[in-house]
Amino acid sequence: MAFKEIDIKDLEFNPFQKIGSEWALVTAGDETASNTMTVSWGALGVVWGRNAVTVYVRPQRFTKQFLDAAERFTLSFYGAGHKRELTVLGSKSGRDGDKVAEVGFTPAYLGASVAYEQAELVFVCRKLYADDIRPERFVDASVDEEVYPEHDYHTMYIGEVEKVFARDDA
Questions:
Q1: Which residues on adjacent β-strands are paired with residue 46?
Q2: Secondary structure element (H or E) that encloses residue 26, with its range
Q3: CB neighbours (10 Å) of residue 51?
Q4: Bridge partner residues of 28 (DSSP)
Q5: Could you report the per-residue pLDDT of 58-93, keeping only the tens digit for each?
C-alpha cells in the first residue's frame, strides 16, 4: 500500500466522528522500535498559528516512553471498518507482545515516522509541547473525579502537523 501526500487544506472530515467514534492511533518510534495505541480523545485545530493535533496518554501506557523520546509522532485514522483492530491496539500493551502483528497491520515508514498501511489518513506531527494534566487545574472538579479515580493523569502532547498522507488506492 502506498500513500500520497495531500494538502491539509483539502481535508474534509468531522474530527468528532474520526476521533470520538471511529478512534485513531498515535504512534511513535522508528524502524528499529515503535509502539502504537488507540486514542479516542484528542483535538485538531490551530494552536500558536500552526496546524496542530493534541493527544493524551496515561503514564502507564508503553507508548508514552516512545512519545517522550521522539521528536515526531503520527496520528492515523482507519475508519469504522477497523474498530476490532483498534480495540485490540488500545487494550493490549506492546510490552506484552506484538499486538500490531496480532491485528495484521503492516508498518509504513513515512520518513522517520511510523504508521500502518491500513490507515486511510496519516498526520505526521512534530512535538511542540508536552505537559501533565494537574488536578488542581480543573475548574470542574467532577471531571477529575469521573476520569481520574486512580490519579493516573494523562500527559497532553501538542504536535504541529507537518505532513498529511492519504491512502493511494490508484
A1: 51
A2: strand 24-29
A3: 18
A4: 35
A5: 999 999 999 999 999 999 999 889 999 999 999 999
Domains annotated for the chain, with CATH where assigned, are: 2-168 (2.30.110.10)
Bridge partners for 2 per DSSP: 168
Contacts of 80 (CB under 8 A, 6+ apart): 21, 22
Question: For residue 120, what is the DSSP state?
Answer: S
Can you tell me the distance from the alpha carbon of 122 to that of 127, in angstroms, rounded to the nearest whole number?
A: 15
- pLDDT digit string, tens, across residues 115-147: 999 999 999 999 999 999 999 999 999 999 999
Paired strand residues for 25: 38, 76
Residue 108's SS3 state is: strand
SS3 content of the chain, % helix, strand, coil (to 5): 25, 40, 30
Say if strands 50-57 and 155-168 run parallel, antiparallel, or are unpaired: antiparallel
The position carrying cell 495484521 is 104
- Quickly list DSSP for 39-58: ES-EEEEEETTEEEEEEEE-
Cell numbers for 85, please give them.
Answer: 483492530
pTM metric for this prediction: 0.95
Q: Closest Cα partner for 1 from 152, 106, 122? A: 106
